[in-house]
Every structure is written in structure tokens, then in C-alpha cells.
Amino acid sequence: MKFSVFYQQALARKGGEQALKSLLPPVTEKHRLAEVGDDRYLSEITRCIFKAGFVWRVIENKWPDFEAAFEGFVPAYWQQVPPEVLEQLATDERIVRNMQKIRTVPENARMIMDVAKDHGSFGQFLAQWPSTDQVGLLLYLKRNGERLGGNSAQYFLRRVGWDGFILSHDVVTALTRAGILDASPASKKGMSQAQEAFNRWHEETEMPISHLSRIVSFTVDN
């Protein structure tokens, strides 16, 4: 299926080209990704983990307090944080007191520090990973991080501006209706089917994959 089919549907639903363009997510240039500090990546990973299965607005409103409670999310500190600090956070009213999610911070800090040893920084690692192999990156984050399966890693990548798709409910519905996706979107097969389609449309349109993904989502009734 040509991407123009999705594009025309999205145009009709969103009121024209300018309205559609205003809704597309920003894409960060690779050199900008490389310049972002590792503390910001740990912060964004944690934000997406805490949002999962929770009211997003609550997490966003509390996020300045999260930053204060986690002292800026410096990976070098959190990778070896004493257990008693985590226990204190579990009673800290400034944040959402979910101990399972709190415990992801040192685990993901260790992943970031390990990556930085090999690539210079986590940002440089993200910058060199091609958008045409998002499946490989998602599997890496799931295997080496904590609670980065499902859509959490996809939303993290979108928040930092890495150019990739999100297999949201609307995107999955649209791809399934089009006969592109016939496997679970959480499976490697399903993600690979989506990747193949987005790669093909990227070559066809020269549009960022994140824009293609968002446009596809607009073809489904909300």
C-alpha cells in the first residue's frame, strides 16, 4: 500500500496540510542527540516508565518534584545508590511511591553507564543507531534496561526526538486494517512488520519515520 492512502485520509480528518503539519512531532538532529547529557536520558526513561499504566498528567505535574527527589538523575550516582536511599524514596510524597518503578532507576543508570563506556555517551549511542533498525534498538533496551519493553521505550525515543515509530493502539489498528500487521505488536515479528512498512514509506516519501507513524495514527477514529 502506498503511503499516500494514509496521507490523504489524515489530511481529510485533520483539516488540511498545515493543520496536519502542526501536529507532527519534532525530530532531533543526530548531533543534537549526541550532545544531550546522560542524566537527561535517565530522566526521560524514568518519566516514561512512571507514566506507563498511570495518568500521564499527574506524572507531568509532579516531574519537577521527581527531578528534586532523584537529585537530577545523575547515572554515575544512581548506578551504585545505597538501598536505603531507594527505601526513603518509597515514602517520599513528592513522587509516585511505586517501589518497583523506583528500582528501575539504578538498573537503567547501569545500562546508560555501560553504553557510555563503549560509545562515549548514551546520546552518541542513540545518534549512531539507524532509524531503519528501530526494532534492534528496542530489543537492546528491553534486554539491557529495566521495564523498557512494551511501548515505554518507544515513547522514550519519541520524547527525546529520536526518529522512530510508536505502535500505539491507533497505529496498530491502521496497520492491521491495511493487512500490514498480522502479529502481536509486542512481538519481534510484529515490530519487524511495522518496521518494514515504515522503512518502505520513508524511502517513498523521504519523510521522517516519526512523522509517518503519527500520520498513520490520524487515520483511525479517536
Automatic annotation (TrEMBL):
Coiled coil: none annotated. GO terms for biological process: base-excision repair. This is DNA-3-methyladenine glycosylase I. InterPro entries: Adenine_glyco, DNA-3mA_glycosylase, DNA_glycosylase. GO terms for molecular function: DNA-3-methyladenine glycosylase activity. PANTHER family: BLR0857 PROTEIN, DNA-3-METHYLADENINE GLYCOSYLASE 1.
